[in-house]
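Is copper (II) ion placement plausible here? Inputs below.
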Amino acid sequence: MSHIVVPQKTYIYIFLTLIGLTALTTGVAYVDLGPFNTVVALAIAFSKMLLVILFFMNVRNSSGLIRIIIVAAFFWFALLIAFTMSDYRTRTWTPAPDSWSSAPPTHP
Amino acid sequence: MSDAEAHLPEHHSGLAHQFEDLEQQQESDFLGIWLFLVTEIMFFGGLFAAYAIYRFFYFAAFEGGSHILDARLGAANTAVLLGSSLTMALSVRSAQTGNRRALVVFLIATLILGGAFLGVKAYEYNQKFVEHVVPGLDWAPEGEVLARLAPGGVQHAELYFIFYFAMTGLHAIHMVIGMGLLIWLAIRGRKGDFTPHYFAPVEVVGLYWHFVDIVWIFLFPLLYLIGGRY
Amino acid sequence: MSTATLEPRVHAPRNYLNADYGWKSWLFTLDHKRIALLYLVSITFFFIVGGSFAVLMRIQLVDPQGAIVQPETYNKLFTLHGVVMIFFFLIPSIPAVLGNFLVPLMVGARDLAFPKLNLLSWYIYIVGGLFTLYSTIAGGVDTGWTFYTPYSSTYSNTQVTAVAVGVFITGFSSILTGLNFIVTIHKMRAPGLTWFRMPLFLWAMYATSIIMVLGTPVLAITIFLLALEHLFHVGIFSPALGGDPLLFQHLFWFYSHPAVYIMILPAMGVVSEIIACFSRKRIFGYKIVAFSSVAIAVLGFLVWGHHMFVTGQSVYAGIIFSLLSFLVAIPSAIKVFNWTATLYKGSISFDAPMLYAMGFIGLFTMGGLTGLFLASLATDVHLNGTYFVVAHFHYIMVGGAVMGYLGGIHFWWPKISGRKYPNGWAALAAAIIFIGFNLTFFPQFVLGYLGMPRRYAFYPAEFQVLNVMSSAGATVLGVGYLIPLIYLFWSMRYGPIAEPNPWGATGLEWQTPSPPPTENFSKIPVVTEEAYAYAEQEAGHE
Ligand code: HEM
Ligand SMILES: [Cu+2]
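Reply from A.M.:
I modeled the complex. C-alpha cells:
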C-alpha cells in the first residue's frame, strides 16, 4: 500500500493507451496473419493486463510480496494448463491398436 | 487535501482491535485482497483452461461461433469498461487526496459505465436468443447462422457457446457484485467516512474492479476475435 | 460439545469462555477461539454422520451377498461417506479447529487478521453442510465423492446438484480460512518472531493455506461446470458434443490431489509440536522440516495425473505424473526421518498426545509407502480401483490425519477448555484406535491385492474372512472414537483445572492462561528464542 499520489495525467495516458491497444487488436483481427492472429491477440491482451496491473492497480509501487503473489498466481494457472495439455498433446503419440478402431471384437 | 472536513478525529480512524496500528491494518487488508484476487485468477483459470483445451481441439467450430458475435460491439464495450477502470483509479486518487466530492463523482461515473457495459451485454444475450444459439435453453441455429457454424461442426459450436455464456456470465456476476460495492462506497464516501489516512475500502474495491476489467481484457479477444475476421 | 454449558466458576478469572453467555454470544462471536469451538462442534457432528455411513457399509460387507441394503443404497452410502468425511470433516478439521484456535496465539496476536471473514467462513461451511444434509434426506447421491462425469452429469438421477452446490459453497469457507491464515502469519507476528522462530505448526498451516487459496477455486469452477451440465443438459464434459470426460478428472484432481495435503500437512504440523514437547528436544533439522511443508504444497500440485493412469490419459503424461509422484514422497519421508531423529536420545514421555503422534508416524509411513505402489504405472494397473487404494488412503487420512487431529486435540485440550482429561482413559483410547484401525484397514490391502474391487455392494465368497475381520476392526475403531468423545465432554465440567502450561511446552500459546482471555495476551509478547528451546528450558531449571 503506497501513499504516493499518482498524477491524474498518468492515469489518462494509460487509459488512452489501453483504448489504442483495443483498437489495434480489433483491427489486427481483420488482417490474415495465419496462426499469428491468436498470438498477437494474446500478446496485446497481455500488455493491456500489465498496464492495468502496474498503473491502475499501482503494483508499480507495491511491495515485493504482492508481486510474488501475482506472479505465483499466474504461474499456477500456467501449470494447470501446461500439465493438462501435456496429456492432450501426447495422447495420440501412441496409436491405438488396430483392433480398437474397427467394430468391437467378437467374443472368442 | 482540499476537503478539511473529511478529516475525522483520531479515535474514529477505523482501526480494528486485532491490529496494533493503521499501517499494519492497511498492509493486511491489502495482502488480503490480493490473495482474494489470486483465488479469482484460479477460479477463472479453471474455466480458461477448459476453454483452451476445447479451442485447441475444435478450432474451426470456435471460430465459427466467434463470428456470430459482433466484434465492433465487443470492442466498444471493452472501451466502456476500460473507461470505468479509469474512473475507478481516479476515485482512489480522490480518496487519497481527501477530495470527497470528486470521490463520489468518480464512483458514480464508474457505476454508470459498469451499468452501460451490462446493458450492452444484455442486448447481446438477447441477440443470442434471436439467433437460437443458447445451449440448453434455445439451441436451434438456422439459416445464415447455421451456415456459419456448419464448417466447424454445429455440435462443437454449441460447446463454444457454452463457454461464451459461462465466461461472460460469471464475468457479469462479478460486475454486479462490484457495482453493489460501488454503491456502498459512494454512500460511505458521501458521509465522509474516508480520509487520506483511511481509505482502504476504496482501494480494495478498486483492485477488485480492475481485476474484473482484466478478465474482460482477455475475454474480448478469446471470444470475439478467434481466428481473425477477414 | 457445547462449552456454553460450563458453570461460571466463582472466582475464575475472565477468559474467552466465561466472557459472555448465551447462544448469541456464540453465534455472533468474532473471537477466533470461540469460532474454533463452533467448528469443533460442527465437524464432530459431521464426523458422526460420516461415521454412521461407514458403519452401515461395514455391516453390509459382512455378508458376500450384502447384509442389509441394495446396491443403489450402497452406492449412496459410500458417496455420502466420502463427501462428508472429506469436505465436511477432514478438510476443515485441523485448520478450522486447531488452526483457528492456535494461529493467533502462536503468532502472538489478539486475533486473526479478519475476524469477520472468519465467522463468515463458519456460516458458509454450515450452509454448504445443510445442502449436503438436504441431499441426503432427499434421496442421496450415488456418483462417488469424485463426481466423475458422465455418471454425475448424464446418468445419475440422484441429488447431484444439491451436493455439488454444498461442496461448492463449503469450498469458500476453506478459501477464507486459508486467506486469513496467510495474512495473519505474514503481517501479525509478534516482535521477534521471525520466520525461522515460528513453530512448525505455523509453517504447516501456512503451506496448507497456500493450497487452499490456489487449489480450491479450481474445484469450485469445476463443480460449477458440472452443475451447468447437469442442469441444462449441455455437454461440457459429454463426448456427445465432443466434450471430454477426462477433462473433468483433470480439473477435479488438480484440486483434489493437493487437497489430500490439506488434510495431512496440518497433522504433520501437530505431530512436530508433540514430538518436540514429549522428547524435550528441538526438532531435528527444523529448517528442512519447515521447507518440506512448502515443498509438499508446491510439488503436490504437479502429480494429479496419478489418479488417471488407467483412464485414457496419455501414457507420456502418465510417466511424468508417476515420476513427480515419487518426488513428492521425498519431503514426506524427510519429515518421518526427522521426527525419528528427534526422538533419538530424547527424554521421551508417553502421555496421550505422544501416543497419537507415534501412531501417526507408523500409520502415515504405511500409507505413504503404499502410495508409491500406486504411483508406479505398472502396479497401478493391477491395484487401481481395488481395496488396495481404499486401504492406502485410509492409512493416510484416518491413520495419519485423524490421528494427528486427535493428538492435537489432546495436546491443546487443557488450553482450549481449561481442564484436564483422565490420562489413563486417553492412553487406552489411543491404543484401541490404533488396534481397531489396523484391524479394519490392513485386511483391505490384502483384499485389494487379491483383486477385490472397491465400490461394490457384493463380493465373491472367498473374500469373506478378510471382510469380516475388517468389519470387526471397524467396531473396535468406533469404540475407540467414542471414548474420547465421552471423557473430553466429561472433563469440561469435572476435569481438574489445567495450569497455563501443563506439558511444560514452549510456544507462545502456553504463556497465557488456560483458557486464554478474550484478548489472548494481556501484553503482546516479545519472542527472543527459537521454537522448541527445550534444551535451554532444562538448563534454566538447573
Ligand atoms: C507419499 C505420497 C503419496 C503418493 C505417492 C500417493 C499416491 C496415490 C496414488 C497413485 C493414488 C491413485 C490410486 C488409484 O486410484 O489407482 C492415490 C489415491 C489416493 N490417495 Fe494417495 N498418495 C500419497 C499420499 C496421500 C496422502 C497424503 C493422502 C491424504 C491425506 C492421500 C489420499 C489419497 C486418496 C483419498 C486417494 C483415493 C482417491 C480416490 O477416491 O480415488 N494420498 N494415492
Ligand atoms: Cu493423489
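Short version: The pocket of copper (II) ion (ligand 2) is lined by residues C 257, 260, 306-307 (CB under 6 Å).
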